[in-house]
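Archive maintenance. Older records in this collection stored only the sequence; we are now back-filling the structure field for every entry so that each record is complete. The fields below show one back-filled record exactly as it appears after the update. Entries are processed alphabetically, and ParA family protein is next in the queue.

ARCHIVE ENTRY
Title: ParA family protein
Organism field: Candidatus Korobacter versatilis
Length field: 276
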Amino acid sequence: MARVIAVANQKGGVGKTTTAINLAASFAAAEVETLLVDCDPQSNSSSGLGFQRDPDRLSTYDLLMASASAAEAILPTATEKLAAIPAHKNLIGANLELVSADRREFRLKDALAVIRNRYQFIVLDCPPALDLLTLNALVAADSVLIPMQAEYFALEGVSELLDTIERIRQSFNPELTIECVVLTMYDDRTNLAQQVAKDLKGFFGDQLCRTTIPRNVRLAEAPSFGQAAIDYDPQSRGAEAYIKLAKELITRAEKRQAAAAHVQEKVAAAGVETYE
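Back-filled structure field:
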């Protein structure tokens, strides 16, 4: 069963889409079956993986409108073990079309439920807004990965996202957790970056990723060639950082599974009957 990770931050320009693309590609490079779902009307994750704009192609919009299944919308990518569901500009209108729709907050969750057993990770690239599209992604997700720049305004914006996550826990998805916070466009040569990293470590503790993503020209260039950095220049600092991030998240997932298995063993040893 896939772990569904929503890459979200309502603040634009923090490397959210870059993280979604390169994290998903790095999972795939680690021989892990991965699906990237583009939930952003700007479709940057789609174009960043080489998908040209096609008005007739099935997209995330069709999933939200329940006019197509996830299985029908999945497309292969140039990266082995990485598949994608592209976005479409019609997603802009989905915020209005979903207002009166039945189970409007659960459309994406319902669509992905039938294909979750095909993948180990499903990465959701959210738009830079706390709207119905992001709400659908957070309801569908097991956890949220928050990309942040090491700057003052980033600290201001994260409180609003954390408040949204808590409200979603209370109303729609009580199991939603924070996967981690990852520092992007990081330059450890500046005092500000070091201080922000220290503040975030104090606030988030182990939820702050050990891996940081540096400023890197190759990361910026790769989308114009329709490639993830690991395919465009696997030796670049940016590609290596995302590979390291993927390994860190895989390790976290393995530890969670081991802990859950240990609890089940203790319950079984105690003779306590459990129910699905």
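Update note: Residues 152 and 196 are 7 Å apart (CA to CA). The chain has one domain: 3-269.
Entry marked complete.
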